[in-house]
From TrEMBL:
Residues 823-834 have a biased composition (Basic and acidic residues). Residues 78-316 form the GPI inositol-deacylase PGAP1-like alpha/beta domain. Belongs to the GPI inositol-deacylase family. It comes from Aedes albopictus (Asian tiger mosquito). This is GPI inositol-deacylase. Involved in inositol deacylation of GPI-anchored proteins which plays important roles in the quality control and ER-associated degradation of GPI-anchored proteins. Its EC number is 3.1.-.-. Gene3D superfamilies: alpha/beta hydrolase (3.40.50.1820). Keywords: Endoplasmic reticulum, Hydrolase, Membrane, Protein transport, Transmembrane, Transmembrane helix, Transport. Residues 823-848 are annotated as: Disordered. InterPro entries: AB_hydrolase_fold, PGAP1-ab_dom-like, PGAP1/BST1. It is a multi-pass membrane protein. The chain crosses the membrane at residues 699-727, 734-757, 763-788, 860-881, 901-918, 930-950, 956-972.
Length: 977
C-alpha cells in the first residue's frame, strides 16, 4: 500500500513539474519588446594585436556602419570606449543593437561626443556550463582592454578608462577582469545584463565553482560592501553590517557596478541570481522606467525599450562639461551613481529640491477646490497655465492624496507653498517649492501618465507654514486630464492572507471599489517563500470610458531592485501575479512589513477584486529555482535502490539482487524527510563537518523534486528494459557493424574484446579519456555497457529456453536432457535441509524480505545488479556532457580538452567498470550489509551537499563504483557458495 502511495505521489509530482516546465516555456508572459532596426549594414572590424596569437579562438572587433567603418579600419576612434562581453554560447554580434543605437545618437550630435563600441569574440564557448574556459576568457578580455585604450594614445587627453557591458556570463567575466593585476584603474563602470553574479546557474564542475569563489573573495577583500535587508540575508550578517575600508578607499570602490535582471521571462538566469552583494544599483527590466516589461535571456541585448535606456545611461556618463569633443567618462562615482539611479530606478536628485519656483500670477489661473475626489479633462488643452490648489487642512481622516496627470510633458508639476498673498479675488503664492521627488511615471511610456502619492498630514508637519499643495499645468494645445483622490488610507488598504499550499480556490476580496477611487493597496500576509504565487483578479464592473486600465506596483520589502510593474489597458479582466524573488530572510518580520501591491485604477470605472493561489506560475517558479536539484535526487534514489537490492537476501541464503523497479518504489518513502531535515540538523551540530547547502526551504519542494526524480527513474528503468529486451539484439548488431573496420582481423579482434575481454575495452576507453576528454570516454562506456547488458539478456534468454525444454521433456517423455554447460547435479538434500522455515516465526520485515527474495528470478540477478550502475553511468555522462561539447568545439585547435573536469571521475569509473565487466558479478560473498550502509550514507550526502553543487556528484558516483568494485574483489565467500 505504501509503495502504491509513493508511486501515485511521484507521478503527480512529475506531472506538476512538466506542467511548470510547459508554462515556463510557452505561457509565462508575452514578449512585448520592440525590435531594434539598423539604418545601415552593420560591420564588425577585426582589431589585431600580437597577444591575440596566444588565443587563436578569440578575437576583438570594433562596431561601425556604412562609410564610418573606414575610420574603424584605420583605427581612428574619437569616442569613449565601451567593450561588450558576450556570455554562455554568446556571439560578439550580440552587441549590434546596443552599438547601432549608440552610433545613431552620436551621429545626431555630429559625433562631437559619442560612444565607440568594441565587442569580444569568445568563440561562443559554453562558459556558463564549463568553467575550464573562464580564466582564458578573463585573460583575453584583459588584453582587449589594454589594446582598446592604446588606440587612443595618439589623441591628446584621450580616454584612460573603459566601460564593460557584459551579458550573461560576460557580466561575471567583467567582474573578474577587475580583479586582475593593474586592471581596476582602467575600468570606469560595469553593467551586467542578465548575469548570474554571485552564484552560478548550474555548478557542473569545480572549475566554475572555484572561479566564482575566487572572484567573490577578491571583491570582498578589495571593495566596501554595506548590507541592507536583502544583502544581509545573502551575507548572513546583521542588517547594519558594513565592510568598512581600512586606511581609505579600497581598490575596487571607484567602479560603478550596475546589475540588471530580465524577470520571469528569463528562464536561463533566475531573477534572484542577477543581484550582487557588491552591486551599487540593481534593477529588473520590469521596473526600469520606460521599459516596464520582462525580457528573456537573449532578448535583453536587442529589446529596443531597454537598449534605449542603456545608451541614455551610458551617454550620461560622458564628461562633456565645457568640451567640444568628449571621449572620457566621468570620474566622480557619486555623479555616476546618481545617473544610474535616475535611469534605472527613477530616483531623482534632491540637490535642487529647496530651490523656489517663481509663479507668474498674471498669466496663471489659481483655482482652489475642496472636493476630495474629482477628475477634469481638457480636450483642447489650456490657453493659460492652471494651478490647482489642494488645501492642507483636510479632515484628519482624509490625509492621503493621490494625484495623477495624463499627457503632460513637464515633470515639475507638483509644488508646495504658503498661499497667503491675495490678488484678483484669489489666493496665491509668488514662489513655491517643487516636490518632483514625489512624482513617478506609470507604464507604459506611450500613455505619458504621471502620479504622486503624498501624506498631507506628514507634509504639513514637515512644512508648518505651507497651506496648499499646487498642481501646476502649463498651457498646452494637446488634450490632457488630471485626477485628485483624497482618501482615508485605512479604507484603501486590504489584507490578503496567503492561501495554504493545497488551496487553489478563488476568494472574493472586494465586491466593488469606491466611487472615484484611483488607488488601493493590498498587503499579502504569509508570503515568505519564493515559490509562493498569488493571482490577483481585477474585473471591471462598470466603466464610463473606453480605457479601464489597471497598473500594479508590486514591492517585496526584503529585496532591492525587484519592485515590479504589471499593467493592462483596455481589458475587462486582468490577472496580476505576485511572488517574491527569493525567500524571506531569517529574522525579517513580514507581518509588520509584508509584500504589498499598489493598484492604480481608472477613477471612472468600478472594479471587483478577488484572489487565488496560482498553480501554473507557482510550478513555473519551482522549475526555474529548484529544477537543478533533480540530478542529485536521481543519484540518491539510485543509491537507495541499489542498497535495497543488495539487502533483500535473507541471512544464510545465496545472494540474489532484487528487482530495480521494486527497489525504486520501496526504498525512498521517508528518506527525503530525514535527509532534508533530520540529517541536516545533525550535520550542523558538528562544526568539523562542512556546512550543508540551502536547507531553509519548504518540505513541499523536496517532495515535489524527489517525486519527479523517482518517476523519471521509473520511466528510465522501463525504457532501459525495453531497449534491452526488444532492441538489444538489433542495436547490438548495428553497434558491431559500426565498430567493424575494413581490416577483417582488427574488426574481429574488437568484437571479440567486447564479448570476451571487457578489460581490454576498459583500456581502450581509458585511452580515449586521456587522449580526448573524460566525457567522451563516459559516453563510449555507456554504449559498451549497453552492449554488455544486451548480451547478458541474450544469455539469460537462451538458458531460460533450454531449461524450459528440459522440464517439458522430463514431464512428457521422462527424459532428462543435459545441456552443455550445465553444472554438475548436487546430491539430494536431507530432510532438515529441505524443510522450509516456519513463516509464523518470521517478523513482518523478514516476511517481506523473503517474498521479495523468492520473486527474484535467478537468471536476472546479473542484470538487476548492473542496471542501477548503468543508470548512474548515464547520469554522470549527462552531468559532464558540457565538457564533451567544449571538447568537440575546440577539437580543431586541440585534440584533447585542457583542463578537463571530467577526466578524473571518468578514469576512476572506467577502471572500476573494467574490473566489474571482467568478473562474474554479483558474487555470493559477505559484506553486503556494510555496502548497503555506505550506499545510504552516500545518498544522504547527495541531498545535503549536492543539490546546488552538482559537480560533487561526480565524486560521489565515482566513489560508489570504487567501493562496489573493492567489495566484489575482496569480499569473503559465503559458506554455501
Amino acid at each position: 500500500m505504501l509503495s502504491k502511495c509513493v508511486l501515485v505521489t511521484s507521478l503527480c509530482s512529475l506531472l506538476l513539474v512538466m506542467y511548470g516546465l510547459l508554462i515556463t516555456i510557452t505561457k509565462i508572459e508575452e514578449n512585448r519588446c520592440k525590435l531594434t532596426y539598423m539604418y545601415e549594414y552593420p560591420q564588425f572590424v577585426r582589431i589585431g594585436f600580437a597577444e591575440n596569437d596566444q588565443f587563436p579562438a578569440y578575437g576583438l572587433y570594433a562596431y561601425s556602419e556604412g562609410q564610418l567603418a573606414q575610420n574603424a579600419r584605420n583605427m581612428l576612434f574619437r569616442g569613449a570606449p565601451v567593450i561588450f562581453i558576450p556570455g554562455n554560447a554568446g556571439s560578439h554580434k550580440q552587441a549590434r543593437s546596443l552599438a547601432s543605437v549608440a552610433l545613431r545618437k552620436g551621429i545626431d550630435n555630429g559625433l562631437r561626443y559619442h560612444l565607440d563600441y568594441f565587442t569580444v569574440d569568445l568563440n561562443e564557448q559554453y562558459s556558463g556550463l564549463y568553467g575550464g574556459v573562464l580564466n582564458y576568457q578573463v585573460d583575453f578580455v584583459r588584453l582587449c582592454i589594454q589594446r582598446v585604450l592604446s588606440s587612443y594614445k595618439s589623441i591628446p587627453g584621450g580616454p584612460t578608462t573603459v566601460i564593460l557591458v557584459g551579458h550573461s556570463m560576460g557580466g561575471k567575466i567583467a567582474q573578474a577582469v577587475a580583479t586582475s593585476p593593474g586592471m581596476a584603474p582602467l575600468i570606469n563602470s560595469i553593467v551586467a545584463i542578465s548575469s548570474p553574479m554571485d552564484v552560478p546557474v548550474l555548478s557542473l564542475d569545480h572549475y566554475l565553482q572555484n572561479f566564482y569563489n575566487s572572484v567573490n573573495t577578491e571583491w570582498k577583500q578589495n571593495r566596501t560592501v554595506c548590507s541592507s535587508p536583502g544583502k544581509a540575508a545573502r551575507l548572513k550578517v546583521e542588517d547594519d553590517y558594513c565592510l568598512a575600508p581600512e586606511g581609505g578607499s579600497r581598490p575596487l570602490d571607484h567602479i560603478l557596478l550596475v546589475t540588471v535582471g530580465g524577470g520571469i521571462r528569463d528562464t536561463m538566469v533566475h531573477d534572484s541570481l542577477t543581484n550582487s552583494i557588491f552591486g551599487d544599483v540593481h534593477a529588473m527590466t520590469y521596473n526600469v522606467p520606460n521599459v516596464w516589461l520582462s525580457v528573456d535571456h537573449q532578448c535583453a541585448v536587442w529589446c529596443l525599450q531597454f537598449v534605449l535606456v542603456m545608451n541614455r545611461f551610458l551617454y550620461s556618463l560622458l564628461d562633456i562639461n565645457n568640451k567640444r569633443v568628449a571621449n572620457k567618462f566621468i570620474d566622480d562615482k557619486e555623479i555616476r551613481l546618481k545617473n544610474a539611479l535616475f535611469y534605472f530606478k527613477n530616483i531623482k536628485s534632491t540637490e535642487s529640491a529647496d530651490k523656489l519656483v517663481k509663479n507668474d500670477v498674471m498669466y496663471e489661473d489659481w483655482i482652489e477646490d475642496i472636493r476630495r475626489n474629482f477628475q477634469m479633462t481638457f480636450e483642447t488643452g489650456l490657453s493659460r497655465t492652471r494651478v490647482q490648489m489642494i488645501p492642507l487642512n483636510f479632515n484628519p481622516l482624509y490625509r492621503y492624496m493621490k494625484a495623477e496627470v495624463v499627457n503632460l510633458d513637464t515633470e515639475n508639476w507638483i509644488l508646495g507653498c504658503a498661499a497667503t498673498e491675495m490678488g484678483r479675488d484669489m489666493r496665491y503664492c509668488s514662489a513655491a517649492t517643487p516636490l518632483y521627488n514625489y512624482s513617478s511615471v506609470l507604464p507604459p511610456t506611450e500613455n505619458k501618465r504621471q502620479f504622486a502619492q503624498i501624506n498631507l498630514h506628514d507634509i504639513k508637519v514637515q512644512n508648518p507654514s505651507w497651506t496648499h499643495l499646487l498642481l501646476k499645468f502649463p498651457k498646452t494645445n494637446e488634450a490632457f486630464k488630471f485626477t485628485v483622490d483624497i482618501n482615508n488610507y485605512d479604507d484603501r488598504v486590504l489584507d490578503v492572507q496567503m492561501p495554504k499550499w493545497y488551496s487553489f480556490g478563488q476568494s472574493q476580496l472586494l465586491d466593488d471599489t469606491a466611487l472615484g477611487a484611483s488607488f488601493y493597496k493590498l498587503r499579502v500576509l504569509g508570503m515568505e517563500s519564493s515559490y509562493q504565487t498569488l493571482a490577483i483578479n481585477v474585473d471591471v464592473r462598470s466603466c464610463n470610458v473606453d480605457n479601464p486600465f489597471v497598473v500594479a506596483n508590486i514591492s517585496v520589502p526584503w529585496t532591492e531592485g525587484f519592485t515590479k510593474y504589471s499593467y493592462y489597458y483596455k481589458k475587462n479582466h486582468s490577472v496580476i501575479y505576485v511572488y517574491a524573488p527569493y525567500d524571506k530572510p531569517s529574522g525579517f518580520n513580514s507581518t509588520i512589513d509584508p509584500v504589498a501591491i499598489d493598484l492604480h485604477l481608472n477613477p471612472s470605472c468600478r472594479y471587483s477584486l478577488s484572489y487565488s493561489q496560482s498553480l501554473s506560475v507557482m510550478m513555473a517558479r519551482v522549475v526555474q529555482q529548484f529544477g537543478q536539484w533533480v540530478p542529485a535526487h536521481c543519484v540518491a534514489i539510485l543509491l537507495l535502490a541499489l542498497k535495497h537490492q543488495v539487502s533483500v537476501t535473507p541471512d544464510n541464503e545465496d545472494f540474489k539482487c532484487g528487482k530495480l523497479h521494486t527497489a525504486l518504489s520501496r526504498s525512498t518513502p521517508f528518506f527525503i524527510v530525514t535527509a532534508s531535515r533530520v540529517f541536516t540538523k545533525m550535520v550542523m551540530m558538528f562544526k568539523v563537518l562542512p556546512q550543508p547547502e540551502q536547507y531553509e526551504f519548504s518540505i513541499l519542494i523536496s517532495v515535489i523534486i524527489h517525486g519527479a526524480s523517482l518517476s523519471l527513474l521509473l520511466m528510465s528503468t522501463a525504457a532501459a528494459w525495453a531497449a534491452i529486451v526488444f532492441c538489444g539484439n538489433f542495436v547490438h548488431k548495428i553497434l558491431l557493424k559500426i565498430v567493424c573496420l575494413p581490416i577483417p582481423a582488427l574488426s574481429s579482434t574488437i568484437v571479440s574484446c567486447i564479448h570476451k575481454f571487457p578489460m581490454v575495452i576498459g583500456g581502450i576507453l581509458m585511452s580515449i579519456a586521456l587522449a580526448s576528454c573524460g566525457s567522451a570516454a563516459l559516453i563510449c562506456a555507456c554504449i559498451v555497457y549497453f552492449i554488455i547488458l544486451t548480451k547478458m539478456y541474450e544469455s539469460y534468454l537462451e538458458h531460460f529456453v533450454l531449461k524450459t525444454a528440459q522440464r517439458i521433456a522430463l514431464k512428457l517423455f521422462g527424459i532428462n536432457i543435459r545441456c552443455r554447460g550445465d553444472q554438475k547435479e548436487k546430491p539430494p538434500k536431507t530432510k532438515d535441509e529441505t524443510t522450509e522455515p516456519n513463516p509464523g516465526n518470521q517478523s513482518p520485515e523478514a516476511a517481506v524480505q523473503r517474498q521479495e527474495y523468492d520473486n527474484v528470478h535467478t537468471g536476472l540477478i546479473d542484470i538487476n545488479f548492473h542496471l542501477p550502475l548503468f543508470l548512474l553511468l548515464i547520469v554522470i555522462s549527462l552531468l559532464n556532457f558540457p565538457s564533451f561539447l567544449t571538447w568537440a568545439k575546440h577539437y580543431t585547435l586541440s585534440p584533447s580538452l585542457k583542463p578537463d573536469a571530467s577526466l578524473i571521475p571518468s578514469v576512476i569509473i572506467i577502471g572500476s567498470l573494467s574490473v566489474l565487466w571482467q568478473m562474474n558479478v554479483p558474487r555470493n560473498i559477505s559484506g553486503y550489509k556494510l555496502l548497503s550502509g555506505f550506499l545510504y550514507i552516500a545518498a544522504v550526502v547527495c541531498i545535503i551537499y549536492c543539490q546546488i553543487s552538482l559537480y560533487r556528484l561526480n565524486f560521489i558516483i565515482a566513489l560508489t563504483f570504487v567501493v562496489i568494485t573493492i567489495h566484489q574483489l575482496v569480499g569473503l565467500k559465503m559458506k554455501n557458495e
